[in-house]
Amino acid sequence: MNAETLLHFAGLCSAFAAVSVGSYGLLRQLALLGLLPIVPGDGRSFYREVAHRLGRMAAERKWFTPLRQKAEHDLIRARLVDVVPDDFVGESLLYALLAAAIMWVLTVAVGGAAWNVIPAAVAAGVLFQVPGWNLKGKARRRIGRITRRLPYSLEVVVLATDTGAGFEEALEILVREDPRNPLHEEFDQVLRDAHLGVTRKEALHAMAARVGTEDIASFVMALDIAEDLGTPMAETLRKQAEAIRVARLQRAEKMAKEAGPKMAVPNTMIMVANVLLILAPFLPKLSHFSTM
User: Fold this and answer.
1) Region at 45 (left for phi over 0; alpha for psi -120 to 50; beta for the rest)
2) What is the pTM assigned to this prediction?
3) What's the gap between Cα 36 and its chain centre?
4) Residue 40: per-residue pLDDT
């Protein structure tokens, strides 16, 4: 193998790597933004049936157990109660199989060898992660809405308790005003648990476990301390709302300081990919001049 062939091969590899890096980043960002589908519509369609069977097969053989556990956690945080982890794993497998089949057909159609399954394997690996990225994005957006809404909802609860309403009555007022807000959905679940005989403390701790944020955890802890010490509820909630605002500002400042270093790696990858795409067609000419 001479130098010119090596340079041709290096150019092709560089172009493939650049396109792969760009496609990977684009698909991941689209999935995190929720612009790619994760769960099909209602009804037992053929798509859902195939995904269900693949998920059950993987569960019976104990494949992808970490993915199933992570999906279960994210499904709770995203409040996708009509999706089970097994079906989610099956959908990821179906994405991967369809991507591999389509990429293999395209590889053969453009003149590639039938045994060349590398593009199909890369496509399957990337598309397998798309439902997970999308689910993570849905959960992150919902948790973000809960965090942003919490201090304002606490102020409404404070106003309601100041007028003589109880804590549960104040939560009912919030739920009636905006039942579709994610935070109020969690409060509604707390009220439902209380109606089923669960104590308020247990219902609030269950909510903190579902949401899994520091603000909700500190809010529940403050209520526990106020209940144990007999502190007035309104004063405790007022202080907690102010503390949450301060914590949000501190987190925003910290994220702003860390944004620069975190963007250095993806920016470098993008620049390298662009340079490889630009230089790849000129590598054979450079080899020709080097041999003269």
Assistant:
1) beta
2) 0.70
3) 12
4) 42
